[in-house]
Amino acid sequence: MKVSGWGEMVKVVATNKKAYTDYEILETYEAGIVLTGTEVKSLRNGSVNFKDSFCRFKNGELYLLNLHIPPYSHGGVYNHDPERPRKLLLHKRELKRLMGKVQEEGVTIVPLKIYFNDRGIAKVEIAVARGRKKYDKREAIKKKEMERKIREYMKYSR
Prior knowledge:
Elements: E1 2-3, E2 9-15, H1 17-22, E3 23-33, H2 37-44, E4 54-58, E5 61-65, E6 86-89, H3 92-103, E7 107-116, E8 122-131, H4 134-157
Antiparallel strand pairs: 1-2, 2-7, 3-6, 3-8, 4-5, 5-6, 7-8
Keywords: Cytoplasm, RNA-binding
Pfam families: SmpB (PF01668)
GO cellular component, one term: cytosol
């Protein structure tokens, strides 16, 4: 459990750690996600895989593609397709803003994390991101490593 900025409890299911190294995050948005019952139960078990997942516009709506939510163990014949496209729910003005940003060269929309808010509703944090080159990734990793070492040194020097 984690308390968000507004004082509400949030249960983070999964975080896309690779997105932070592969992309430069420009803006983040919170979006609802359309799920079936077995997908929600599988998410509550904490099983989801972000590998190669991204967002695309189709007919003016935003869809999350390649997000792998494994079938629920007790789902039976009512189980879902693990990698089906999932519609994201945003306000119309947010969709228009995102569509304008994606028109830019080299900008994409990637999911950062999936969580349940204080009301038990599944949410996805998505980000407008620009891809990094290989040397930028190395630089970001070095910078993160240095910050971690400085924090560790400061912790023990007190």
